[in-house]
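Slide 14.
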Amino acid sequence: MRSPTMRLLPRFRNWIWSLPREKSSAVRIASSVTSSIKSREPKSTGKKFDAVPLLDLRRQYQEIRSEVLAAIERVCASQSFILGPEVEALEGEVAAFAGVGDAIGCASGTDALWLALRAASVQPGDVVVTTPFSFFASASAIVRAGARPIFADIDPSTLNIDPAKVEARLQAGGSYKVRALLPVHLYGQCADMDVLQRLCDEYQLTMIEDAAQAIGGTWRDRRAGSFGTAAAFSFYPRKI
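Slide 15: predicted structure.
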C-alpha cells in the first residue's frame, strides 16, 4: 500500500561572496511585490479582520484520514519511532517516483542539502554557485558545509536561476575554487537543466539539486531530483 505522503503528491505537485551593484531581478521582484502589497493595504478603521491561514489541509486530510491514522498506528505498534519499516518503504517509493536508484530519509530538506554537499566533498575554501531567490536554507547549507555561496541571478520569466548568469560567473573566474552548482527548482518548475548540465560538465562541477519545492516536477520527461549527483526534497506540507 502506498504511503499517505506519496498519495498526496499527484494532488499537490503543481558570507555572500559578492553581489552585482545594480538590483538583481530577485530583489526587483521582491521590492515590487512589497510595494504592491503596501499600496493595497486598507486604511485602519479600527475594525479587526479574521486572519487568513497560511496553510489549510483539513479537506485534503479528510480524504486520506484513515490511511494516515493507520500509518501512525503501525508506527506506535512497532515502536519504530526512528527509521524502521515505514521510513524504508517511503524511501523506496520516493526513489521509484523520482526515477533514481536510492533515497535516504533525513531530518529536513535543509539537512539533506548539507549532507549532499558534504558527500560531494564541498569543503572550506570552496565556492558553490546558487540562486539568490530561494529560501535561506539553499545558501545556509553551503555555509554550513564550510563553503561560500556565490549568487547567479534569476531569469525573471521563470524565477529560476539563469544559466547565462551562471556561465558569466564561471567565465569571470576568481581566486576561489568553484566546486559545485546548486540550482533551485521553484514552484514545481525545473531550472534549465540542459544548459546547467553542460556547464557542470565543462567546468567539472558537482550538481546538487534543491528540489524541495518540485517533487514530481519534470524537465524533458525526467523527474526533478534525477539530474544531479544528489538532490533534496521536502515534505513540509506547503511545498508538496
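Speaker note: The longest helix spans residues 58-78.
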